[in-house]
Amino acid sequence: MLLPRRSFLIGSTALPLAGLWWHLARAQGNTRVTSAVAMHGEPKYGADFKHFDYADADAPKGGEVHLGVVADTFDNFNPFTLRGAETAAIGVGLLFETLTTGSSDEAFSEYGLIAETIEIPDDRSWVAYKVHPQARWTDGQPITADDVVFSFEILKTKGHPFYQAYYASVDQVAKLEDGRVKFTFSGGPNRELPLIMGQLPVLPKHYWDGRDFQATNLDIPVGSGPYKIKSFDAGRSITFERVKDYWGNDLPVNVGQNNWDIIRYDYYHDETVALEAFKAGNYDFREESSAKNWATAYDAPAVRDGRIKLELIKNEVPTGMQCFAFNSRRDVFKDRRVRQALAYAFDFEWTNKTLFYGQYTRTASFFSNSELASSGIPAGDELQILDKYRGRIPDEVFTTEYQPPATDGSGNIRDNLRKALDLLKQAGWEVKDRRLVNAATGAPMEFEILLDNPTFERVSQPFVQNLERLGIKASIRTVDTAQYQNRTDHFDFDMIVEGFGQSLSPGNEQRDFWSSKSADTPGGRNTIGIKDPVVDELINLVISAPDREGLILRTHALDRVLLWGNYVIPHWHIQAWRIAYWNRFSRPKIIAKYALGFLSTWWIDPAKDSTLGTRGTN
C-alpha cells in the first residue's frame, strides 16, 4: 500500500445521480463492476453511503488557514520525479487526484474518484477503471482515458524510481471503449495491485505535451483537484485557493471536506523561529514533533488564556520504524555482529528520560503499533513459513523474541558496552591504544552520522560519546535538505536517521523498502542496502497473501527476519498526535482511526474566530 496513503489530498464528491452509481456492483461472469474495492473482504461504506463517518456534511466552507513548514526552499511544482521530490513546494498534492481514494477508518479500501467504476475479476489478475464522464481539469478540459494511460507511462519511465518498483507487475495497459483503461498483471497472485492502480496520480496529457517532465520549474500546473495555486513567492510562501466549480464537489468521499477557501504555507528555515512565529499568531496549526518543545516551549500567554489549544489525541496509526539506519553497503557495516554490537551503545532509556520527558515508547518492530508487529517467538503457521529458511536466517529468529538493548536509564551502560565489545571481537575487531581497529588490517572503525535536521544532534551526540568509549570515532554532519536528499538518493552515507512508515496493509511498497533490486536503484527506499534472497521471498509472500490472517502471519515473518538482521538501531514512537492550534476551528465529532484530518475535515468556526481577539501577543 502506498504511503502516505493519501499522498495527494483528494477531494471526491457525488454529482447528481451519484447515489445510482456510487456502490453499484453487478455480476459479470467471474468479474464485477463496482465503485469500491477492499484489500480483504468488503468495503465499509455501502450503497447508502453519503459521506465518510469522520466528515461532517454540514461543515461550513470559507475563510483562510495559514500553515508553517520548516524547509530551506522550493523551486518546483512537479513532485513526481526524483529531482522534483527534493524541492517540490509543500501542498502541491492538493492539485492532483488519483483514480480512487482511500478512507481513513479502514485498513485498506479504495473508493472511486476520477474512476466512476472499477471492473475486477475474482482472481484480481487485471482491473479496468472507467473515467467519470464529468471529471474535468481546472482548465475545463475533460479527463480522458488517454490521460490515464499517459500518466502511467510517464510515471514509470520518467517519474520517481518508486513508481518503477510499485508498478513492476503491470504487464499491459490498454485503452478500451467507453472511457475505460485496463491494467493486466503478471508475476503471480497479488491482491493489492488493483488497489495500487487506483492510487495512480492522473496527469493532464495535453498540458505535458511538449514539456520536459523531469525539468525543475515553477510553471503553475493544470490539475483536477479541489485546489489550485493562487500565488507564490519562490522559496518563501505558496497560497492555494479552492476551486469553486471543482468537478467533484458532491461525490460522497468529499462531502464535508475541503472546507478552506484559502490555504497558505509560509516557509521557515529554523524550527525555533517557526515555533515563535506560531505563538505570535503568524500561522494557525502545528503538529508538534519535538518532545522537548511539547514539554517546555508552550508556556505562553496565548496558551494560558486559551487562545491557543494544546491536545494529545490518541490514534491507531501504525508507527513503522524510526531508527539509526546502517548503510550495509559500507564494508564496516557488512557484518551483522558489528551492527548488533553498535546498538548496545545507544541508551534509549536515558535519552527518553533526559531529553524526551518520558513521552516515548521504544520501537521493537518495523510494523509497530499494529497487529502486524511480531512478538514472542514464531509458532504454528508462522513457524511453518519460517522453517524452510533455517540456516539462511539468524538462529535467534526461532529462539528469541527481538527486543532492542535496554538500560536502567542512569546513563551507566558499562554492561552493554561489554556485550558490544564481545560481539566486535567475534567480528574481528580489537582495541589497541584505546582505538577499535580491524584485527587483520589495523584500520580504525570510523563513520559519519549524516543528518538533515539539527534536532537530532542532541540525540546523536550521547550515542557518539558512548561509541567513543568503545574506541570508535563517529562524527555528526548536518547538511541542508537538498544535499541530504542527493546523498541519500545515491547512498552516499554511512549512517542516517531513517523512517520506514507502514500502513495496515503492507504490500508492493515493501519491495522498495527491502528488495535486492531496490538496493541498486538510485532514489529507492532501500537505503540500508539489504540484498537477501530470503527477504525477497518473504516480500513476495506478503504481497500474495490470500486473506487478512495470512497477511498478518507473513508480515510477522518478514518483521522477524528484518529485526534479527540488525539493519537498524530502533528509536521510539508515540501513539498519539500532539497538536497546537489557535482556537478558531471546529472539527467532526468522530476522529478517523488513521488520520487526524485537519486539512481535509476541519473548518473555521465563525463564532470562535470572532472572539479570538488579537493574535500578535505571544
- CATH architectural grouping of the largest domain: Roll
Number of helices: 22
Adjacency order of strands in the biggest sheet: 1-2-8-9-11-10
CATH H level, superfamily name of the largest domain: Dipeptide-binding Protein, Domain 3
Distance between the ends: 42 Å
Beta-strand portion reads 15-25%
Show unreliable segments: 2-29
* CATH class wording of the largest domain: Alpha Beta
Largest sheet: 6 strands, antiparallel
Average pLDDT reading = 92
Globally, the shape reads globular
What structural category characterises the helix and strand content? alpha+beta
CA radius of gyration: 25 Å
Number of strands: 29
Kindly report the CATH topology of the largest domain. Answer: Dipeptide-binding Protein, domain 3
Helix content: 25-40%
Overall number of domains: 3
Give a verbal description of the structure.
This protein is of the alpha+beta class. The protein is built from 22 helices and 29 strands. Strand 22, helix 15 (457-469) and strand 23 form a beta-alpha-beta unit. 43% of the residues are buried.
Compose a concise summary of this entry.
The protein has 618 residues and is an alpha+beta fold. It is 27% helix and 22% strand.
What descriptors fit this protein?
618 residues; alpha+beta; D-Maltodextrin-Binding Protein, domain 2; Dipeptide-binding Protein, domain 3; 3 domains; five-stranded mixed beta sheet; 27% helix; disordered N terminus
